[in-house]
């Protein structure tokens, strides 16, 4: 009997050794977690500019105050070092920490709610494989009453999804999983109600966030701005396409996330966005627009040096104007913001860095920006309307005079 | 009808280095750099990258209130300068009655003494930027301890591929220190 027990003990020990000695399974899971972390764009909030990856500190401005991304490296004091896989899954998909603290919904746990347990475990394995960073996260600073975390229980009861979608990759719509759950595109592109909850019945219909418009991504809206499936896939993969380049808050999404995605996943996302039967892209209306007047001369004086007097731009330097997605948007908001503030220098891929576009806040008043925006939208955006000065002032803030 | 007449053009009124320029029709889409080179024969302003990055094409725009600013002429249309007064690298030195150079500006002299440039391609932009800085500090002096950072902030966008910037930096510092009223006392 004793020998049998001993044998059993040896067998168990041998199994344990065998499991620990099989590096393939763990490495695969960690790598899968790394990929999922990119698809879920965790770095966007949990990595501060110039900071150690996932050590927290990135400020997220919300209408209710500033929330800071936390340290999610496996540090016992300041990170998630003492989390179990269950704890991690609950924080990720329910927004609840091991001690019962409710996370603010700046953490998109309502989107992540549908993350499968297998994917959650892979993410957990990846984050636990990182070097712990002993760095305290900046404390979140919200105004009362939002500073009272207990109110979040009521928020969750009202707005958080309650049906756990145990995603089965073999049958689930991979694209929708990438767009809605991991990619949480709706966190910016779906409008939010007065309580900061996404309006799920207006999925991806566009919203204004941080002063910029996160454009509508419905099939009709995308086709209306001339997007095809191949251009959209290219845009996500390269950060650029014939319709323009990524800037503002979309650029970090490309930089941290979409450029790492596999081609089949990018195609799946595009498919999810444009639908099974993508609408025909709307051609740019042929215009016999003016080449003189204030708007035209402002363009020649300030923009044509890089974008060209014919608007064709310079490959890999300055975007082409005809059919540019920012010009085709119904609202002039993003165009006005870009003219006013410029665009920061960006890198696209390993070997390319594009210099900054200057902003013209000091050079053009609201009248001039309105004239320039009107001319650009009519010439190359397919619009007939005019952008009035009051609208520009509203967008750039009345303080600019 | 000449080729130029077929291009949409508008009369341009501009003052360069203190002189009102002859008014003539200038193509609406001409960049200022080309105007300086082709219409005024002022070739000291350099064409570098052509996309507003290197700053070799920088000139000075003088405002009526006595302030001045840099402007990149490779990406700015000639007509942006309608009614404005600018200085180019040709306008800094004192000249005698025959138009020959009599003395250099403080910035130019310091650049020579420090051997600041080698190939000189970026030098016109640096001369103009450093001059804008010195003139600003005369209006708004800084503490001595803040001078290094002030110089870096003012000139860091200008590219030089020969000298490593150290000699430019020392020359600008000395030009500032040699100019009265640029440093706050105490």
TrEMBL record, chain B:
PROSITE patterns: 2FE2S_FER_2. Gene3D superfamilies: 3.10.20.30, [2Fe-2S]-binding domain (1.10.150.120). CDD domains: fer2 (cd00207). Signal peptide: none annotated. GO terms for molecular function: 2 iron, 2 sulfur cluster binding; metal ion binding; oxidoreductase activity, acting on the aldehyde or oxo group of donors. PANTHER family: OXIDOREDUCTASE WITH IRON-SULFUR SUBUNIT, OXIDOREDUCTASE, IRON-SULPHUR BINDING SUBUNIT-RELATED-RELATED. This is (2Fe-2S)-binding protein. It holds the Pfam family Fer2. The lineage of its organism: Bacteria, Pseudomonadati, Pseudomonadota, Gammaproteobacteria, Salinisphaerales. It comes from the Bacteria. Residues 10-92 form the 2Fe-2S ferredoxin-type domain.
């Amino acid at each position: 009997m004793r020998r049998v027990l001993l044998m059993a003990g040896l067998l168990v020990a041998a199994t344990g050794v065998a499991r620990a000695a099989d590096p393939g399974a763990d490495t695969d899971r960690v790598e899968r977690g790394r990929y999922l972390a990119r698809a879920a764009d965790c770095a966007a909030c949990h990595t501060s500019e110039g900071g150690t990856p996932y050590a927290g500190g990135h400020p997220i401005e919300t209408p209710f105050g500033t929330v800071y991304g936390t340290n999610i490296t496996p540090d016992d004091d300041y990170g998630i070092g003492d989390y179990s896989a269950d704890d991690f899954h609950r924080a990720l998909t329910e927004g609840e920490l091991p001690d019962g603290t409710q996370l603010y919904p700046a953490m998109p746990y309502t989107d992540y709610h549908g993350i499968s347990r297998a994917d959650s475990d892979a993410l957990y394995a990846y984050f636990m494989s990182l070097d712990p960073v002993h760095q305290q996260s900046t404390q979140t600073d919200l105004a009362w009453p939002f500073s009272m975390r207990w109110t979040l229980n009521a928020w969750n009861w009202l707005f958080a999804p309650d049906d756990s979608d145990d995603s089965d990759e073999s049958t689930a719509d991979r694209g929708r999983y990438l767009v809605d759950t991991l990619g949480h595109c709706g966190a910016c592109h779906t409008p939010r109600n007065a309580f900061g909850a996404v309006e799920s019945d207006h999925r991806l219909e566009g919203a204004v966030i941080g002063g910029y418009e996160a454009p509508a991504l419905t099939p009709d809206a995308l086709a209306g701005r001339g997007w095809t499936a191949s251009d959209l896939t290219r845009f996500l993969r390269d950060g650029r396409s014939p319709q323009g380049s990524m800037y503002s808050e979309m650029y970090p999404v490309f930089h941290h996330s979409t450029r790492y995605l596999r081609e089949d996943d990018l195609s799946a996302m595009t498919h999810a966005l444009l639908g099974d039967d993508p609408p025909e892209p709307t051609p740019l209306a042929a215009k016999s627009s003016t080449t003189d007047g204030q708007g035209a001369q402002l363009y020649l004086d300030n923009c044509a040096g890089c974008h060209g007097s014919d608007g064709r731009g310079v490959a890999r330097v300055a975007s082409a104007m005809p059919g540019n997605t920012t010009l085709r948007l119904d609202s002039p908001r993003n165009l006005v913001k870009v003219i006013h503030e410029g665009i920061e220098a960006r890198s696209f891929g390993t070997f390319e860095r594009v210099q900054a576009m200057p902003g013209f806040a000091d050079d053009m008043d609201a009248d001039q920006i309105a004239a320039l925006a009107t001319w650009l939208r009519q010439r190359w955006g397919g619009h007939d309307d005019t952008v009035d000065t009051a609208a520009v002032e509203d967008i750039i803030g009345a303080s600019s005079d | 009808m000449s080729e130029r007449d077929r291009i949409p053009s508008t009369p341009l009124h501009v003052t360069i280095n203190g002189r009102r320029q002859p008014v003539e029709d200038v193509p609406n889409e001409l960049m200022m750099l080309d105007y300086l080179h082709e219409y005024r024969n002022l070739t000291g302003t350099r064409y570098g990258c052509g996309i507003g990055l290197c700053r070799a094409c920088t000139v000075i725009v003088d405002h009526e209130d006595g302030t001045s600013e840099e402007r990149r002429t490779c990406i700015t249309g000639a007509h942006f300068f309608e009614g404005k007064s600018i200085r180019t690298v040709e306008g800094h030195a004192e000249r005698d009655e025959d138009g020959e150079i009599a003395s250099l500006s403080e910035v130019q002299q310091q650049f020579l003494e420090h051997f600041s440039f080698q190939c000189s391609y970026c030098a016109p932009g640096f001369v103009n930027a450093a001059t804008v800085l010195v003139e600003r500090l005369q209006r708004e002096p800084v503490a001595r301890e803040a001078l290094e950072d002030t110089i870096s902030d003012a000139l860091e966008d200008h590219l030089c591929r020969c000298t490593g910037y150290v000699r430019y930096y020392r020359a600008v510092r000395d030009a500032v220190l040699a100019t009265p009223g640029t440093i706050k006392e105490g």
